[in-house]
Write a structure and sequence with these properties.
3 strands, mainly alpha, DUF4735, globular
Length: about 210
């Protein structure tokens, strides 16, 4: 999957925002919504859909879906996140290999933004918190840099990373923070829902 569908230098090029509308490249749309990707290529498909929607390109996304006779946008989201959940479960069952921890947190962050509660599990949260450098507050990894390795044409097993002077890893810390934000959101919403249910039950008995 070509990375330039997400970025070109510092500017995204998968869409162009004019004064009237967005223009989505047919080439990028078909590649960024194709089935069969895994790992970072799969997570980038969800990221692509999120960025395009936030950029106000929903009408053009709908047009592309109709043009290529694809299922609805929510079906694409469900499909991609279901595949990402299977990968996350596999990573957890393999005892969270160090080289996949970054991906594991990215999966929780991206699909968590869509509200998929299956990504929010207490053992997973404990693991994510355990990977934090408690002195620096960020996320590091002694095994970095990881040699780039691509297996076949359907996934990228390494995300570009940058280490700061204090050893903090930019991407790893960013996806960790994003995942933790989604956990906080989920726990807050769950607590509020439980309290509301208890109040409803209390007042219904009056």
């Amino acid at each position: 999957m070509p990375a330039n569908c997400l970025s070109c230098g510092e500017r995204p090029i998968f869409w162009k925002k004019t004064s009237e509308h967005c223009v989505i490249s047919d080439k990028c749309w078909t590649r960024m919504t194709k089935l069969g990707y895994s790992q970072y290529s799969l997570s980038h498909e969800i990221f692509y859909l999120q960025l395009a929607e936030l950029a106000g390109c929903l009408p053009q996304m709908t047009w592309q879906i109709l043009t290529y006779d694809q299922p609805g946008l929510h079906v694409l989201q469900d499909t991609f996140c279901a595949n990402m959940l299977r990968e996350a479960i596999h990573i957890a069952r393999a005892d969270y290999p160090a080289r996949h921890q970054d991906l594991f947190m990215e999966q929780a962050a991206l699909c968590g933004m869509y509200g998929y509660a299956e990504f929010f599990q207490y053992p997973w949260l404990d693991k994510i918190l355990s990977w934090q450098d408690h002195q620096r507050g960020c996320y590091t990894w002694a095994g970095w840099p990881l040699e780039k390795h691509v297996t076949g044409s359907h996934h990228i097993s390494k995300r570009e990373e940058r280490r700061l002077a204090d050893g903090c890893l930019c991407h790893r810390t960013t996806v960790a923070a994003a995942a933790l934000v989604q956990y906080v959101r989920y726990l807050t919403e769950t607590y509020v829902a439980q309290q509301t249910q208890q109040l409803d039950h209390l007042f219904s008995g009056l």
